[in-house]
Every structure is written in C-alpha cells, then in structure tokens.
Amino acid sequence: MTSDFEKKNSKLINSDTGINFLGFKHIAQFHTQAGVSHLTSSMAFYDKQDDEALWDIPDYILSDTLEKDLNTTINVCARALAGTKYFPKDVKAGESFGAVAEGQREGAYLEAWEDFQIVGFDGLPIYTEATLSDAENADQDRLATALWLIVKDICDEGRMLSPDWYLARILFEFFREYPVPLENAFLIGELYKELCVKQAYEGELSTYYRSLTESQQRRQLGASATQKKAEELRNFCVGMFVDLAVRVGPMIMFAPPEIQAHELRKVALDARPDSFVRSGKPYSVEWFLRNVIEDRRLDIIKALERIQARK
User: Fold this and answer.
1) Cβ atoms within 10 Å, residue 219
2) 54 vs 117: CA distance, rounded Å
3) Which of 45, 81, 84, 124 has the fewest beta carbons under 10 Å from its own?
4) How many CB atoms lie within 10 A of CB 245?
5) What confidence tens digit (pLDDT) does each residue in 11-59 have?
6) Cβ atoms of 6 and 35 closer than 8 Å
7) What Rg value do the Cα atoms of the chain yield, rounded?
8) Is 9 in contact with 34 (CB distance < 8 Å)?
C-alpha cells in the first residue's frame, strides 16, 4: 500500500499566456514530487491551453520536459540569495544571448551586486574594492571572488549545508569559469537537487527526528527508573532475608531455594505490599527466586558473615 509520502503528486505552479517567443503562445511549469524526489518540468505551447488540458499532462510528457536550463537555475538561486544580507536589494539577475556587451558573458548574469557595506560574521566587510581589484589583476572573476568570500563567511558562521550556503556555492560554481565546465554544471545540478529536497522536506524531517529522539529519551529514562526501582527492591529483600535467617536460624539457609523464595515473598509483601506489585498483581515467587535468592546469594552470605563476626 502506497503512503501519502510515497505517492506521486503534481501541481501547476506557473501558467503564462501572451508569450510571443519563437512562435510560442503559452508556457506552463509543473512541480512533481514523490518521497524525497522533487522535480520541475516546463512546457511551451504554440496555442493557449485551458486549465483542464494542463492538469491532464501525462507522466511521460512531464518526464521528457524536466527543466535542464542551467541559466534558469542560476537566476532562481540569485533571486533567492538576494533576499539575504549578501546581496543589495537592487541586485539584478537576468540572461543575455547572442551579441552581448564587451566584458559581459552570455547566459545568466548579475548586475549591481557589489556592496562594500556588507558585513560578515567577524563584523568586517566581506570584501572590499581592493580585494576585488587584486583578484581581477590576478585574472580572477570579481563576482566569483565575492561569491567565494560569501561562501567562506557562511562556513565561518557554522552554516555549511544551510540554504544560503547552497545558493552561494551554486552561484560560485557557475561564475568561477566561463564557459562553465561540465564538472561544474554537474555539481551545480547535484547541489540544486539537495537544496530543493532540503527546502521541501527538512522541516518535517527535523520535527520527526526531534520527536523520535525525545521518545527514545523518555524510554531510556523510564528504563533507568525501572532498573533503579528493581535494584532498590533487591537490596531491600537481601536485608529482609538476612533478618529472616537471623530470626529463624540456620534452617532457612539449608532449605531448597524455592522454599527460601516463598518465605522471603511472604515477609516482603507484609512489609511493603505496595512496592512488589506489577499490573495490579503481587510479584511471583519466581521473581524472588531469580532476583534475590539466586542473583544475590553472595550478598546474603557476606551479610550473615558480618553479623556472625560481630558476636
């Protein structure tokens, strides 16, 4: 039987009409998830589609149209990081293709991202004009240098694997080299996948594991309390049996263990009837036999020897 967690669910998250790009009139974006999988598909249509048709997209179409646009991923991450302290509010993320301005790269880009007032974990600016100029003079990308320093600040704050870390690291892998090497693109895909899963499920999983840990701790405390009570009762019974042996003489020590347990049970229940009860029933002779007469026999003998030595 498939649980709700394992069941595949799809929903339409964006439907744009009025598009006029390469003959396309309608673009729709779908979100599909099952278990820990978390995927997005995009489709372009030459005609406007009604809601009923969009909701009836078959699985093989969703499978064939999974988003693979690296520039879109970078723009999504850039806009998300713009909501943190690491980018100024007027930062602009976009894409450019074909003829681009001198010094600008084709594909995803960031504009107005520099802000020398951004303070890091140590209370100092994360980067300065001198920092970026030195990197530029060493043939390193200014933006990539700033992104690496942002990644470093997130790590120094102890937030590696946080959403901010994923966003900054994805952007760094994209802007550190141009064109983007295949291994960088693959890493970006893996990091983005983990980020999507983290955002979709980590909150619920954290709550679940916190609940599980608390439940285990309660069971451990309960087990510890039970063990402590059992040990206290065994110690009490050792003293009761020693008193019984002193009172009735050596006869009890030579009696069969079952008889010893039976006699001990009687005096123990008389002394503390409320202590030797489980589920509303008094402890059995078997408990006194196993836990006292057999398990604590040496303690009984030593106690009797000490009494004898004092005479």
Assistant:
1) 10
2) 47
3) 124
4) 21
5) 888 888 877 777 888 988 888 888 878 788 888 888 888 888 888 888 8
6) yes
7) 36
8) yes
| Residue 47, Cβ density class (10 Å: 0-12 exposed, 13-18 middle, ≥19 buried) | exposed
| Maximum Cα interatomic distance, the chain, rounded to a whole number of Å | 111
CA distance 154 to 120: 8
3-state secondary structure of 38: strand
Distance of CA 17 to the CA centre of its chain: 39
The answer to whether 86 and 121 are in contact (CB under 8 A) is: no
d(CA 241, CA 252): 9
Q: Rounded to an integer, what distance in angstroms lies between the CA atom of residue 53 and that of residue 71?
A: 28
User: Which pLDDT does position 106 carry in this prediction?
Assistant: 82
Start-to-end C-alpha separation, the chain: 75
| Cα 127 to Cα 87, 140, 146, 173, distances in angstroms | 12, 14, 6, 18
How far is residue 233's CA from residue 276's CA, in Å, rounded to a whole number?
8
